[in-house]
Amino acid sequence: MSARRLDASALRDWAHAAVDDLIAHTDEINRLNVFPVADADTGTNMLFTMRAAWAQADNDAAGADVARVAGALAAGALQGARGNSGVILSQILTGLAEVIAAAAAERDGDLTDVDGVLLGAALRHAVALVVTSMGEPVPGTIVSVLQAAAGAAEHSAVGGAELPEVLAVTAEAAAVALDRTPRQLDVLAEAGVVDSGGRGLLVLLDALTSTLGGQPPARQVYKPSPPQAVSAAEPVAAPPQFEVMYVLSGCGAAGVEGLRAELENLGESVAIATAGGGQYSVHVHVDDAGAAVEAGLAVGSLRRIQITALIGAAGARPVGGWARKRAVLAVVDGDGGAALFAGEGACVLRPEADEPVTAKQLLRALVDAGAAQVMVLPNGYVAAEELVAGCTAAVGWGIDVVPVPAGSMVQGLAALAVHDAARHAVDDGYTMARAAAGARHGTVRVATEEALTWAGSCRPGDGLGIAGDEVLIVGPDITAAAAGLIDLFLVAGGELITVLTGDGVDPAVGAALQEHVHREHLGAELVTYHTGHRGDALLIGVE
User: What is the number of other CB atoms lying within 10 angstroms of the CB of residue 516?
Assistant: First the structure.
């Protein structure tokens, strides 16, 4: 497989790959998190910051050039930065964006991709931005890993290496620097861990290698090990109680430095990063959250104020920072199905080919929904164990997940029709679950072999009407089988019949069923949607 250029498309794909890989490594990174405070959230914060970055790029830079995509990634990360590690990540992306923008300007906008020289320059500029935002760098942190990566990239690129080789050397230097961090910072040695932020940076570099068609080396699972010998122990101060973040505007350079000094007196882990347009992203850990906010108000205007309690228990993750309060995530198949559910306001997760949806894919979709509460409509496409695993992981990351027992897309549509974000999540989930349960549903498929069913024998090409895993109707074709299944459902009453037609089904089938219901069931209404789903020819629901 030939190496791919780091152009606009690849840069956007890298952002998506980085989110996927951070999801896979978040727990590992969180377990390493002991500096500057052991709040077990470095991986989570990097994940949500990177997610904000790619969301901005997808929304604002679709089809744009590499400079605009890089700028959108930086802007999204700056606006959505979570925690100390998120602020640092936003500065790394800003360094990439500013170097690419400068190179594009030098070439009158004629820049299509990033080479090894530009990558090295971007990482070096990122080091300067991170140091400026964080103050004096502490050896043994992500800054040390970033510095090593930048130096390796510059040296390799100057030697004339192509981007894949530059990237391989860069990632290896980062890995070596990461292994060295416990020897540079006593708190890491005492806990027997490498730096968590540095581990996150290595994940991002490996994701870039994969995106460009390379094969990153197999990394060890970094986990706490027996503490190493360190110098004489010093008394350990109690960690701060709160993390405070806000966006500051209307403040000059002198005011920013004055604010930095004030926040350093109030607490620790101070970061003030340029957010463009005369704005700054401010982060600090303090005991007095009000004083940190007042310090900002004294020098400028504040918005997006976030105050989070710092919990020292391992595995704890922060909540908040979501773009909206509640969303619905529907697992659907087919282009028409995706358009139908999205048109009703749901976020959509589609199974890949004939593969079942995994817990990791579900977790990614729950994160992508960008909401504090998510109602999940599995619609029969997620195995129970994968649903439980994915939802449990999301709950651990501060997402309120309410799975709605919808066993088919027709049940999912019934549930979605009564969704009301203004209700309490429990009430909304209960109402949606009742609506799904009230939709009797079945499928129609084409027989592929001779068999004996509960409804009699069938031959290849016959239509089979199925409900509850049993064949209840055998007809000469799918239209006849569907008509028989509808008749059976309506014996128990019903006013609305929904028919979803699958991939390759003739539109005449829907028209024939419409005529059948109009003729045989006065007062009932039938609606047909072509979802293009795979597998069963028809999905039928009656409410």
Answer: 18
